[in-house]
Amino acid sequence: MKAGSINVWNIAPLFKGLGFASMVIVFYCNTYYIMVLAWGFYYLVKSFTATLPWATCGNLWNSPECVEIFRHEDCANGTANGNLTCDELSDKRSPVIEFWENKVLRLSGGLEFPGAINWEVTLCLIACWVLVYFCVWKGVKSTGKIVYFTATFPYVVLIILLIRGVMLPGALDGIIYYLKPDWSKLATPQSPDFADTCLSLPSIPRDAIILALINSGTSFFSGFVVFSILGFMAAEQGVDISKVAESGPGLAFIAYPRAVTLMPIAPLWAALFFFMLLLLGLDSQFVGVEGFITGILDFFPASYAFRFQREVTVAVCCTVCFFIELSMVTEGGMYVFQLFDYYSASGTTLLWQAFWECVVIAWVYGADRFMDDIACMIGYRPSSWMKWCWMFLTPLICLGIFLFNVAYYKPLIYNNSYIYPWWGEAIGWGFALSSMLCVPLTALYKLIRAKGTLTERWHHLTQPIWGLHHLEYKVPESDIGVLTTLTPVSDGSSKVVILESVM
């Protein structure tokens, strides 16, 4: 349809709220996700030193509890680090953690204590937005060329890091730990990403399935890189691998920085890792900003277009997101970041979105009609298995996992210690509901504004609005059933696109 995520739902105008919901989710993602890039950029800059700043104690940001070498394996002898007992050692802190919390985050006591802005991280955030702006301001033509490098170079770095990682002592134990499944984790709803990936597979054509497999395969391959390093760390510290395997931002900014301090030529490996992290994050940010801008530009009629319209729109979008992100570079910024991450684009909101998308496509617009549309685009009719997935399998799985997440909901806790205040939880649910409610509220609004009986309103609001050009796709009778080529025939008018079902 050559439209963004809002206008594409003209196939069923009553449910155009799905487009608004996706725009809200993408806006939230654009707002908080780039903070990972800012932190990565900060670490990359700090990597160009003879001694990594997170490798030693004695810096201005370190506390008296900072200890560089723990040596847990000596606890059997009663002492673990010089004159320290094992009980005393348990209260000490790693310089990597102190650099992350005291220097980068300058972590305050909670969401209610925002504190001052960290200007060093703010400058890194500005640099990231400048990179994003100049990569997407001209559209997908320029972005596509840049992605050739940003999407392929990380594979080179991953291969280099894997070769280095498997040569370290303890790497094999880490890889075994990675490959050995813990089936009890399936009983928790805290890992929705895998489910989201799996749910996307049955409902898209061949190329997209290949892309999803490459995506998941890259994650699987990256696991060998990460856990070979974690196995090395566990061997060096004499602890179980589960003790060093952080989750979330801690994996990139605590576990891996700690690992490179134990390697020879540590600054080189640190710079390679964070450069790779920056490129991977930029790819994702490009997609989010590009999708959001496309949806925004759909609101501007052609008659109101002006020169540099796209460039100005991208600049405004980046600026608005930046000012919101200023709350994340304060001393309480990590608590704000966690709220966005946990609620605004969580598995719950995405499953809700996916469920309604499948229902509208399969049952309102029509699965058979959608199959015809795909045939018009790619030249052949997809397998009927696709239709059954759209109609039954995918929405049922989405609904089941959604209800599972709701039933086993756990309030957000930061670092297993800080419990968010009630108003913080309310803000988080406000993020989630701001996208989820777009679907029913938009449908209700359109039904109220329409005229006629409820049946007439439903019929009118579920009829597709194709655009400005009237085209009929006609297929010779001998080819019906086996779509090969399609010939567009114009009737000379310019009102509504009509796609005639040929199957």
**What oligomeric state do these chains adopt?**
single chain
- Portion of residues in beta strands equals under 5%
Share of helix, binned: 55-70%
Number of E-type strands? 6
Alpha-carbon distance between the termini? 21 Å
Radius of gyration: 26 Å
Number of helices: 17
Low-pLDDT stretches are: 191-203, 468-503
The major sheet is characterized as: 2 strands, antiparallel
Helix and strand element order: HEEHHHHHHHHHHHHHEEHHHEE
Query: What would the average pLDDT be, to the nearest integer?
Result: 81
Strand order of the largest sheet: 1-2
The shape, in one word, is: globular
Pfam family, one: SNF
Main location: membrane
Protein name: Solute carrier family 6 member 8
Transmembrane segments: 20-45, 116-134, 146-167, 209-235, 256-280, 286-305, 312-330, 350-367, 388-409, 429-448
Structure, explained:
By secondary structure, the chain is mostly helical. The chain is 60% helix and 3% strand. It has a two-stranded antiparallel ribbon. The chain has a two-stranded antiparallel sheet with strand order 3-4. Strand 3 and strand 4 form a beta hairpin. Helix 1 crosses helix 11 and helix 1 packs across helix 13. It is globular, with a radius of gyration of 26 Å. It starts with 16 loop residues before the first helix and ends in a 13-residue tail after the last strand. The C terminus is likely disordered.
Give the helix/strand layout.
Blueprint: H1 17-46, E1 79-81, E2 84-85, H2 86-89, H3 95-104, H4 119-136, H5 140-166, H6 171-179, H7 192-200, H8 206-237, H9 249-260, H10 266-297, H11 309-325, H12 333-344, H13 347-378, H14 384-407, E3 413-414, E4 418-419, H15 422-436, H16 438-449, H17 454-461, E5 471-474, E6 487-490
Antiparallel strand pairs: 1-2, 3-4, 5-6
Helix pairs in contact: 1-4, 1-10, 1-11, 1-12, 1-13, 1-15, 1-16, 4-10, 4-11, 5-8, 5-10, 6-8, 7-14, 8-9, 9-10, 10-11, 12-15, 13-14, 13-15
